[in-house]
């Protein structure tokens, strides 16, 4: 006998429905605080339909789109549960609406941040703020050297930011390789 769509599901039903091992579902509960199955006597888990939809979205992003757990956590933090639920259900219209809301919020934040002074530390995270100088790549002294102090052997702030980004990328690659081993 089939259950209604609003019925709670056991961990074995969810695992079978999403083609996942049960231990993966238990692990994801530790990594994604948004997954909160109801636990009954003896530790039995019962997943609400919203939990199943969220897990479906998480599974899609991890397995089909190639996101890392940290990447999916960031998606959840930035866009909320409904974004991943919509992705898991294949509801592209809902994904688009959520993305438009997010874009509008980012534009409003940019307008507010344009009014406040910039902090040098903000340059170390995010997209490159300037093209790297010739000296950054070992091509000699370039005309676009941006060092305010003029000291020999020091990187400009822009080149330091680019080097910091490269370091973060390399560390992420190392972490991924360590996971595979």
UniProtKB/TrEMBL annotation:
User: In the UniProt record, does the keyword DNA-binding occur?
Assistant: yes
Signal peptide location: none
Which segments carry the region annotation Disordered? Answer: 108-156
In what residue span(s) does the HTH merR-type domain sit?
Answer: 10-78
Domain of life where this protein originates: Bacteria
Q: Does the keyword DNA-binding apply?
A: yes
Q: Which UniProt keywords apply?
A: DNA-binding
Q: Which Pfam families match?
A: MerR_1
Q: Which SUPFAM superfamilies match?
A: Putative DNA-binding domain
The entry's protein name is: MerR family transcriptional regulator
| Protein's organism | Neoaquamicrobium sediminum
């Amino acid at each position: 006998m089939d259950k209604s769509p609003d019925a709670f599901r056991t961990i074995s039903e969810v695992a079978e429905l999403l083609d996942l091992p049960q231990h993966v579902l238990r692990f994801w509960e530790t990594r994604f605080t948004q997954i909160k199955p109801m636990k009954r006597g003896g530790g039995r888990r019962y997943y609400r339909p919203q939990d199943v939809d969220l897990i479906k979205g998480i599974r899609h992003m991890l397995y089909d789109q190639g996101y890392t757990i940290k990447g999916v956590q960031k998606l959840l933090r930035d866009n909320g549960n409904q974004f991943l639920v919509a992705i898991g259900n294949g509801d592209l219209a809902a994904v688009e609406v959520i993305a438009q809301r997010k874009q509008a919020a980012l534009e409003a934040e940019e307008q507010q941040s344009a009014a406040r002074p910039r902090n040098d530390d903000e340059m170390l995270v995010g997209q490159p703020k300037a093209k790297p100088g010739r000296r950054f790549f070992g091509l000699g002294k370039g005309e676009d050297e941006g060092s305010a102090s003029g000291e020999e052997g020091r990187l400009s702030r822009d080149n330091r930011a680019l080097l910091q980004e490269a370091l973060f990328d390399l560390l992420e690659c190392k972490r991924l390789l360590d996971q595979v081993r």
